[in-house]
Structure formats: structure tokens, C-alpha cells
Design a protein that fits this description.
InterPro entries: O-antigen_ligase-rel_domated, WaaL-like. About 65% of the residues lie in helices and about 0% in strands. With about 450 residues, it is mostly helical. α1 (about 20-40) packs antiparallel against α3 (about 70-85), α7 runs antiparallel to α9 and α9 runs parallel beside α11 (about 245-265).
């Protein structure tokens, strides 16, 4: 049996050129399963929820009275993380040596932890914080053992599993895979696919986010191109059948922004960013007018009203917020239920500002900047690293776009973990030339018997 070589690619044509032992193959398989299950699939079955009954909450605390419990989901994630950590124990020096890569996360993690002292609901915020740390640690373990192109490969095989399971669930378990007229509070979505998730928008956005990454996957990161093309075709069908307008927006816009970010020179990239800011407002005005002409709701199904209410509550606690992923955000949730009968800010950035204040939002954007900078450096490497940067970077950009219409920065929801995984993977990414530099320095430091450099002894 060959020796363990975590940096060898796990799948594809190049796998035939290297000996892939069972130990490393199992580790990579566990990584794929971890990425897949971080998106919280088979939600109804796992938490024991009946779609026709919905979730009943205590009106005073907004905590669940019935409708299943997410604790089994959190326990499953912790179990996967434990297995990955156990698998990596023989390589503990590498895990310990990479801890400096956590630096970009420190301001956000510290501020989020501090928010537990003033949160409206300590248990909810604490669970959200623990789930976030589990996601970050899981990707750290994966990124520290695998090269960036392998990490991108793991993400893409997770997307393949999502496509397969969605079609199986839609046709074999339609009561869960397709919105039914009997669904509690969701009969308006009757006939729309939700696949292995709770809501059509969850399915649509997951597909759009992973689909963006698939578009940039060449042979260097995903050699089985026929699987890639089949998955893209499947995702197009799923996206249409989910009837999720936001997913179509993400799937069209994210690839363009990804290309602009990686292909434009720095000056033009920043110029495009400056132009994009007023263009967003112009497009929103145009979209509103078009919706009026089409006889549709120009408020984006009430989102603009929700955002106005969220901004009003942010202004009351602009620095600290009301606690990370708080269920109430002061009186915001109660006011929103009374006004529209719905939960959530329906915007990830407003949701983050409500929970951790503008300070928390700023520290999160620092992580995004660090990930973007890391992606640019990775893109300057080999062909496989360039593709890995665009695949993982495309997933991150699509996730950031998806947060414009849903609260997808929350680590415990369906879409949130995908973005946090991509964000973490880029921050933790280690271009191959850095490993070679360390290796060459190690060789140069070992003298041979006659005083010359001896590579054999390094």
C-alpha cells in the first residue's frame, strides 16, 4: 500500500497516474459528505417535521413548540467534524502549524462571542456561534490537508450529490420534494420543487451558488467533464422547476461578476465597483417600474418594506446590535410579524447588522476582503489553482449576491453554510508554490556528509 499523500488529487484522469490508497480516498469521501450535509439536506425527514403542520412557536419567545428540532442536524455536523479531526490526528503538526490562517476571522469571532453577553436569546445565539465555528473548523481541516484544486473538487462533487438526491426526492418522495397545496403557510408555492430542502428558494439558491462554481470548473479541477455538463443541465432544470426568481438572478449575475473580479485589471476592477454602486439603485428602480407594468408587486414581495423596518431597528442599536442570530432583534421580529406575518430581514447584511451591529458587519466584510485577496493570489498560480480560485470564488460571490434577498449569512440555515465554507476555503487556501518554498528551505538547511547540500537527507 502506498504512503499517505494528502496533496495528491483524489479523482479524475490524473488519479490513474498516482497511487490513491484507501486511507486518503476515505478522507476525501468524508470531505464530500461533509460539504453535502452542511447544506442541511432531507430537512423534513431528519428533524421529524410534517410539511402540512408547519412550525408552531411560543409567541413570547418565538422558540419552537412543535415542528421538529434542529439539534439532530447540529449533532450530525459535530459528528462529521469529529471524524475529520480524528482522521487528521496523525498529521497534527500541520493542523497546528496553520493556525495563523485564522487571523482574518479573529475580529468577527471575538465580536460575535461578545454579542452573546447582550443577546436577546443566549441559547439561540450560542447555538449559532457554535455552528459557525464547526463550519469554519471543518473547512480548515479540509483545506489544510488538501490542495486548493482538491478542495474545489470536493465542493463540486458535493454539488453532484445535491443534483442526484434532488431528482430522487422529487420523484420518489413528492410530498417532501415538491410544495403541496396542503403545506402549512406555503400553498402559494404549490407545484414548485424544493427537493431535499424545506423551501423552493433554498433549493434554487443552493443550485445557483454551486452552479456558478461548476461553470468555471475545467479539467484541472474536475476531469470528469461529462459529469460536470450533466450536473449543469440538471441544475438548469431544477432552477426552473423551483420557480425561484432570486436563483435565476444569482445564476446570471454571479458568473459575470466572477469573471470581472478575476479577469479585469485592478484599476478597472475598482472602477467597475464604483460604477456598480449607483447601478444597483438604478436597476432596482427599473425593476420596480417593470414589475408595475407587468402587474406585479414592485416591493419585491414586500421586501422593501421589511428592509425599511430593519434599517429603523438597526438605527436604534447601530454599534452592538441585538445579539448574533437573535430570534427577535429587540422588537423587530414582533413588529414584522404584526406588519406582514413573516420572519427575518430577508437580507443577509441587514440581518448581520441587526445581530452584531455595524461593527459586526464591518468585521465580516474584512473576512470577505481577505478571502478575495487570497483568491487573487491563488489565481496567479498554476492552471489548476486558477480554476480552483474561480470555482470557490464564484461560489462565494454567488452566496454574497444571494444575501441580497434572503438572510443567508446565518450559519444554521440551508444556504448559509455553503458561503461560509467557500469563504473559509479561500482564507485557508495555501498555493502550491508556498509549500515548495518551505520544502526547498528545509532541504537547504540539511548539510550532507561532505558539507554540501544533500537533498536525499532532507
Amino acid at each position: 500500500m502506498s504512503t499517505l499523500s494528502p496533496t495528491s488529487p483524489p479523482f479524475g484522469d490524473y488519479a490513474a497516474k498516482q497511487s490513491v490508497d484507501w486511507y486518503r480516498a476515505i478522507f476525501v469521501g468524508l470531505c464530500i459528505v461533509a460539504v453535502f450535509f452542511m447544506t442541511t439536506p432531507f430537512t423534513f425527514r431528519v428533524i421529524g417535521m410534517d410539511p402540512s403542520q408547519g412550525i408552531i412557536r411560543d409567541p413570547t419567545t418565538l422558540k419552537r413548540i412543535s415542528g421538529g428540532s434542529n439539534m439532530i442536524v447540529y449533532s450530525g455536523r459535530l459528528f462529521l467534524l469529529s471524524i475529520l479531526l480524528f482522521w487528521c490526528l496523525p498529521d497534527w503538526r500541520r493542523l497546528a502549524g496553520g493556525l495563523s490562517r485564522f487571523v482574518p476571522f479573529l475580529p468577527f469571532v471575538v465580536w460575535t462571542a461578545l454579542s452573546l453577553t447582550w443577546t436577546d436569546s443566549l441559547s439561540t445565539s450560542a447555538i449559532g456561534f457554535v455552528v459557525l465555528m464547526m463550519i469554519i473548523l471543518t473547512i480548515y481541516v479540509i483545506a489544510i490537508r488538501l490542495q486548493p484544486e482538491q478542495v474545489a473538487n470536493v465542493f463540486l462533487w458535493g454539488a453532484v450529490l445535491i443534483a442526484i438526491c434532488t431528482f430522487l426526492w422529487v420523484f420518489l418522495v413528492p410530498s417532501e420534494g415538491v410544495h403541496q397545496y396542503s403545506d402549512s403557510s406555503q400553498s402559494v408555492h404549490t407545484g414548485s420543487w424544493r427537493g431535499i430542502y424545506q423551501h423552493k428558494n433554498h433549493l434554487g439558491q443552493v443550485v445557483a451558488i454551486f452552479g456558478t462554481g461548476l461553470l468555471f470548473a475545467g479539467r484541472a479541477v474536475f476531469p470528469r467533464q461529462w459529469v460536470r455538463y450533466a450536473t449543469i443541465a440538471a441544475f438548469c432544470v431544477i432552477c426552473m422547476m423551483s420557480n425561484s426568481a432570486s436563483s435565476i438572478f444569482v445564476l446570471i449575475t454571479a458568473p459575470v461578476l466572477t469573471l470581472a473580479y478575476f479577469k479585469l485589471r485592478s484599476v478597472y476592477r475598482y472602477l467597475a465597483l464604483i460604477i456598480a454602486i449607483p447601478m444597483i439603485f438604478i436597476l432596482m428602480i427599473i425593476a420596480g417600474q417593470l414589475l408595475v407594468l407587468l402587474g406585479r408587486d414592485p416591493s419585491l414581495t414586500g421586501r422593501t418594506d421589511i428592509w425599511a423596518l430593519a434599517i429603523d431597528h438597526i438605527a436604534r442599536e447601530p454599534v452592538t446590535g441585538y445579539g448574533f442570530v437573535s430570534p427577535t432583534f429587540g422588537t423587530f421580529t414582533y413588529d414584522l410579524i404584526q406588519m406582514m406575518g413573516v420572519f427575518g430581514a430577508h437580507n443577509g447584511y441587514l440581518d448581520m447588522a441587526l445581530g452584531t451591529g455595524l461593527v459586526g458587519l464591518a468585521t465580516f466584510l474584512l473576512i470577505v476582503a481577505a478571502a478575495g485577496n487570497s483568491a487573487r493570489r491563488l489565481h496567479e498560480g498554476s492552471e489548476s489553482e486558477r480554476q480552483a480560485a474561480m470555482v470557490i470564488g464564484g461560489i462565494m460571490i454567488a452566496w454574497l449576491l444571494a444575501n441580497c434577498s434572503e438572510s443567508n449569512l446565518r450559519p444554521a440555515v440551508t444556504v448559509g453554510p455553503i458561503g461560509w465554507m467557500a469563504l473559509s476555503a479561500l482564507v485557508f487556501a495555501q498555493p502550491r508554490f508556498r509549500f515548495l518554498q518551505v520544502r526547498s528551505q528545509t532541504i537547504a538547511s540539511v548539510p550532507s556528509d561532505n558539507g554540501a547540500i544533500s537533498p536525499d537527507r532532507a
